[in-house]
Each structure stands twice: as C-alpha cells, then as structure tokens.
Amino acid sequence: MPPHSPSAAGVPDEGDEPSVPPVRQALSDSVYERIKAMVMDHEIAPGGRVGIEALARTLKVSPTPVREALARLESDGLVVKRTLSGYRATQLLTRQGLDELFEMRLLLEPRAAALAAEHATESQLDGLERIVEEMQAHPSPDGRYASYRDFAALDQRFHEAIGQAAHRPLLADAVERLHAHLHIFRLSKVLGAEGPTVTEHERIVRAVLRRNPERAAEAMAEHLTRSLERQLEDGETSGS
How confident is the model at residue 32 (pLDDT cuts 50, 70, 90)? Predict the structure, then answer.
C-alpha cells in the first residue's frame, strides 16, 4: 500500500492555498460592495428589510452571492439577521449611540497610539506614513458612497494600523470591531472634513515617529474629540 498522502485525502499540503475560483470571488466582492453602497446611501432604508430574492433580481445575480454579501455586512454591523424575519439594515446611530461610540474610542485609541509610539516596527511606521500620503492625494468626497468609499476605507485603515502597531492583539481587535467609520459615514458624510482629518492624522503619525507616547495619545484624543464635534455640527445643520 502506498504511503498515506494528506493531499490524496483532501487535506492540502503545507503551502497550498485554499482554492477559491477568482471569478466567483470577484462576483462576491462586487455584490458585497453594491449592497453596502445601497445601505450606506440609504437606498435600503435604516431598519428596512433586506430581501435576498429581491436583491438578487435587482443585481441580476443568483441568491448565493447575495447571502454571502449579507453575512459579511452582518459582521460589519450594517445588517442584522433576525429569526423568521430575515435581514434588516441596522438603525442609524442616535445621539446617545454616537456619544457612546466616541466614549469607547477615547478609551481605546489614545492608548493604542501611545503603545504604537513605543512598539511600532519600521515597516509599520512606513505603512502609517503611506496611508496619510494616500489620504492627502484623495479627492474631496461629494456625499455619495461611491465618492467617499476610498477615503473612508483609508481612514479606517489608519486607525486599525495604529491598533496593530500597538502590538496588543486584544486592543487592536477591539478597535477594529467597533466598525466606527462605517457607522459614522452612514450617519453623516461631513463634507469638507477630509482636510482636518488628514492634518490630525499627520500629527498623530509625527508623534508616533518621534516615539513620544504622551504626545501620540494627546494627538489621537484631540483628533477624536474634533471628529465628534464635526459630527454634531453637521447634525445640527442638517436638522437631525
């Protein structure tokens, strides 16, 4: 009898990558982004039912990639699955919810920035600088998700990169799981805020690069406080 082979038993050899058909993955990603845009732009109303069959017909795809997309959006906190009633878009943050979100961020992220100043590797420092440079080159969003998607993604990458550079896995995971940027941009686009945001990010990076934990924490706290103020100002002007 020939020696037992893991591959012959259906177990991939070390170094093998899971086989995911590229076309299927591209379709799954495309459907995810299209439904995400519908939620972010309120084409699917906050609290509204998200029908799998109806979305499949609208997007001209089978129900399978729609189900896959909704599972990803559930982990993002943008939809919720309820027994017997299927998926619904999550409600928008209330004023109390916004305050609590920033309260959590102010507890976590200044500490992450201080630790990043102490522990970030050279490659992580380079990565933070690259993200800020990309944000500087990004055009101003015009209010639609398609316009601000990349800027929001860079914003999220920046804060998650700070968490990773802290070298505290539980802290980094907590920062990521807040999904703060999705909830905030869905609530209000805060047009014109990209300039102050990038400037504030630059201050954080400078403090981290100088290995100054106290200043890094202060710069992050200042950024989050001003971000909340911008949200509240925008809410007042929009009547919400």
Answer: very high
